[in-house]
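Why does residue order matter? Because the sequence determines the fold. Keep that principle in mind as you read this record.
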Amino acid sequence: MSSEIDEYNGGSVLAMLGKNCVAIASDKRFGMKLMTLGTEFPKIFQATDKIYIAMAGLATDIQTLSELIRYKINMYKLREEREIEPTTLAYMVASTLYERRFSPYYVSPLIAGLDKNNKPYICNMDLIGCVTTTNDFVVGGAADDCLLGTCEALYEPDLEPEDLFETISQSLISAVDRNAASGWGAVVHVLTPERVITRTLKTRQD
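Structure:
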């Protein structure tokens, strides 16, 4: 296992596009290298009714950055008198990370959401805010190599919400079962124009 500081606490996150829907998922483990300290550590945070942000990396930086982004989203809503769009949030997070580029937050953020026209959007970025948008899936965290492999094998375009849930769940479970720094259950959010479906998953607990 890598000794990089952003993998010190473990954890993995994943977002995936579907047909007029989007899904975002994370494991629940909180550890110190290979020692598990907790099994209910939140890595996904609700930005608006239709946007979620997930972060893997150093636990203290996840907590600090999530609170800072929540503050900035609230200030944006007060100033603009409207909800923030996914692309705007992506560049808000990116600029926040770039401001700290000489002493960075050790996190790998993913953003998944639906814009005002209900068009799905996902992106990820590195620890200094370089944004990558795709039309299939984005991954981050300790099991990112395994996640890329399972997503490449299982993903299909234009998945309906239930099929998207099944695909992202199987991708995440297969990947974290092969990574000692991730696991102990998972949570999945599927965002559709009508509602948000949230489900928890059981995974290996060893």
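The chain has one domain: 5-201.
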